[in-house]
Amino acid sequence: MTVSKRLRQLRQTLNLSQVEFAKAIYISNGYIAELECEHRKVNDRIIHLISLTFGVSEKWLKNGDGDMFFKTPGEKLQRMVSLFNELPPNFQDYVMQQVEQLLKVTNDSSV
Question: What residue numbers bound the domain in which 46 lies?
């Protein structure tokens, strides 16, 4: 199966139209259509963007290896770190505060 066919399979698995899928990754739906029809090559930038947005394994999207979605805590952590590193420093601080608050709420409710 080609990358383009896996892209279509992913979109259908997510139950998204081409318009919805394209909007989620900030590209045109015409571009998605061209990728799915193999009129354009799915490049590494698009693969990375799809992976970050939808929690999809880049290995699966590129060559069909492994599971479609991240499953293990290590894979989820890798995705989280990658997303975190893309944020400006002031947003990173905000994320850290929110995570700390979530932990506090979780710990308080388990007592």
Answer: 3-63
